[in-house]
Amino acid sequence: MVNLNSNVPEGPLAEKWTKYKAGQKLVNPKNKTKLDVIVVGTGLAGASAAASLGEMGFNVQSFCYQDSPRRAHSIAAQGGINAAKNYQNDGDSIYRLFFDTIKGGDYRSREGNVYRLAEVSNNIIDQCVAQGVPFAREYGGYLDNRSFGGAQVSRTFYARGQTGQQLLLGAYGALMRQVKLGKVKINARVEMHDLVIVDGKARGIITRDMVSGKIESHFAHAVVLATGGYGNTFFLSTMAMGANVSAAWQSHKRGALFANPSFVQIHPTCIPVHGDYQSKLTLMSESLRNDGRIWVPKNKEDAEKIRSGSLKPKDLKEEDRDYYLERRYPAFGNLVPRDVASRAAKERCDEGHGVGTGLAVFLDFKDAIAKMGKKTIEDKYGNLFQMYEKITDDNPYETPMMIYPAIHYSMGGLWVDYGLMTTIPGLFAIGEANFSDHGANRLGASALMQGLADGYFVLPYTIQNYLADDISTPRMSTDLPEFKAASKNVEDKMSRLINVKGSKTVDSFHKRLGHIMWNYVGMAREKKGLEKAIVEIQELRKEFWKDVKVPGLLNDLNTELEKAARVADFLELGELMARDALQREESCGGHFREEFKTPEGEALRNDKDFTFVAAWEHKGEGKKAELHKEVLNFEFVELKQRNYK
Amino acid sequence: MDLKLKIWRQKNQNTKGKFVTYPVSNISKDSSFLEMMDVLNESLIAKDEEPIAFDHDCREGICGCCSLYINGRPHGPDEKITVCQLHMRKFKDGETVVIEPWRARPFPVIKDLIVDRTAFDKIITEGGYISVNTGNAADASVIPISKEDADLSFDAAACIGCGACVAACKNASAMLFVSAKISQFALLPQGRIEAKQRVDSMISKMDELGFGSCTNTGACEAECPKGITLTNIARLNREFIKAKVG
């Protein structure tokens, strides 16, 4: 029986978390040493959780597929991390950060979780500064802030364009300190392929050693998934090449409900696609929208001239440019939330005003350079400009950047309650891997905040509430039949993959899946297209298992086998994403259904019928997943149509 | 463009490797170097050959995974970037390109172009952090830090731990890597408390793992994709002497 009780404590919003902590069960220091916890993933959420749990005295096993925990993809986050410090004295507060996040998420997230996130945001900045994270400072020595989309205050802390890197290295340092103290063991180049459940509780995982190919079993009293998002379902995204959904997906197949899979974020400022050999898309930080102005030519004829190269963008007269975000949304201008900015870019390009290949718009720093000088712009964005130039061979100081939306972040993920526990007791999901805080659209600089909030300040409390009942459970042998069965399941899957011996490469399937997803489950979705996508994905999946070609050996470092296992899971998740998008007959945040929009083309929510979390239950191979609904109760915020005008 | 690639192939740590030559054709000059490798791998799979194993992940120059030694230079012929940011427009049509793994005893080859860099994690484990538990911290604005120090600290902290400095060094010294971490903390008041112990234990671990000595050649600085400077090594030396005599 599926229980979708969110377990959010009763009472006033601002007292919920305090009340939870006051009433929760704790584990005493001596008992902590008897308890083992597995943390999968070493990004911001995973590294901070593993380090904190180690500090508290638990025995932690940490896993990552990279060669070092320091390389998890949080490292690539550029712009910043939000906190309600109000150091700028511009009217910020915990409530305002909470409200902006709820509104930014288009009222599809849980009030209690989001308020807690805003509440602990300030502790994160304190913690990171104490760790020696070199945040940007002003000449007086105090911390600097900048603005991000969806907010009218400056609450974003940053370390040049490498905030994610600096925060992750801080968490990685904390993690390695626990390695030194013997409380954490790192398992690098090891990938999780299955979850082990004993008597209804998560008790371990099955992994594959990516160097030797060995399938191994690991026991723990609780398992934490910090495995990130599933943007790579689209093949082209801003995710790392290895980022995958397999740990979460296998847990879903073992009983964890998967929430709002169709909620993926399409980031408006990425370097446009330029060729079919392309392997990934590069993000240009949202912080660029602080000073850069987005435009396309007002007249289609000028757009065509720019596309063919007969007109240089900088030679187009000011009155012939359409700064469409400033025009449509004067209050927020270039700093509207990501979903709004992405759709506006698509709309202009679909109308024939695009530049480059036709699927690009300009992000122009001409005015900012004239006003502040090249040096200031270089200080603020130097590394991003350099990155852009290396990729495109264009100098953004002289000619405007070209950008286009790309898949970036997954708001959906494993369903969790207020304690971040999935529907499987003892299985927790934190960071991007869960669904709980960003609703249908995430605001910029909030992913880093959520990852570290979950890992440093939420999970270390809530996991104790669960483990307190487990203090007399002895360590289990991995010879138990449950471990053996799960292990065999993984071995069988790997040998099935390698023995298909078909004719097409893994990447070729992945690219085809990506095309289906981008065309039908991308920025604009409609019923017919989604139905088509479901059929096409099912056919592609069948073809994959008949005709994929995986060279190499099982018991060896085999990059194609790794990819094949991941793509097999993307081929299943892709269908669920389309189903979820199909059932949600409204537009909200990053989920835009062509059938549901206002006369001005803005997203049109249907609060009466869709104010719920769609949590999907796996019903077995080849069977349709079952939809369960967690109704979202808004006690403190009034639901309104988002207005950034 | 068409190229001739001479690539190091090695089955595993215990077998001897060798160069194998692969021609590639019709490569777009706008593709990245690793995308060119993808194209080659797809063609190898089509011919029932095993693809070339190489480390890569973020493909935007920040995770530090990619680690190819191209035409005698770590991360190839362009300045201040990683291999994944290197584009084919930096090469000439018809050119022969030699691709090797990082070569340094503390970084043994795992397979083909993949090396084991856990030695770096081991050095960090010895003190590449400030010992602060979650929840210990005071308000972030309590300690003002001059912009200059914060910026210098950031410059050092920008290290991605790729190991190009070790690969570039004739002695396989890890001094640039270690000095970046030492400098990041030496420049901040929070980092001063453990400064002596940090430099002492990280240096000992570095020596123990078999990294060579620094002879101030500067190849590390020249090849560092993140522009970490030799100044950091000078600062490390100063910190080391302070720890020993001060």
How does this model look, in words?
The complex is a heterodimer of chains A (645) and B (246). By secondary structure, chain A is an alpha+beta fold. Chain A has 3 domains: 13-27 and 36-266 and 409-470, FAD/NAD(P)-binding domain (3-Layer(bba) Sandwich); 268-406, Succinate dehydrogenase/fumarate reductase flavoprotein, catalytic domain (Flavocytochrome C3, Chain A, domain 1, Alpha-Beta Complex); 481-631, Methane Monooxygenase Hydroxylase, Chain G, domain 1 (Up-down Bundle), CATH 1.20.58. Chain A is 37% helix and 15% strand. Chain A contains 18 helices and 19 strands. In chain A, the strands form 5 sheets. Chain A has a 5-stranded parallel β-sheet. The longest helix of chain A is centred in the C-terminal third of the chain and has 25 residues, at 559-583. With 246 residues, chain B is α+β, with helices and mostly antiparallel strands. Chain B folds into 2 domains: 3-111, Beta-grasp domain (Ubiquitin-like (UB roll)); 118-133 and 142-245, Fumarate Reductase Iron-sulfur Protein, Chain B, domain 2, CATH 1.10.1060. Chain B contains 9 helices and 7 strands; from the N terminus they run ββαβββββαααααααα. Chain B has helices at residues 33-46, 118-125, 147-157, 164-168, 175-186, 189-192, 195-208, 219-223, 231-245; strands at residues 3-9, 18-24, 69-70, 73-74, 96-100, 109-111, 114-115. A 5-stranded mixed β-sheet of chain B has the order 2-1-5-3-4. In chain B, strands 6-7 form a two-stranded antiparallel ribbon. In chain B, β1 and β2 (18-24) form a beta hairpin. The longest helix of chain B is centred in the last third of the chain and has 15 residues, at 231-245. Chain B is elongated, with a radius of gyration of 20 Å. Chain B starts with a strand and ends with a helix. The model of chain B has no long low-confidence stretch (mean pLDDT 97). Chains A and B meet through α3, α5, α6, α12 and α13 of A and α1, α2 and α3 of B.
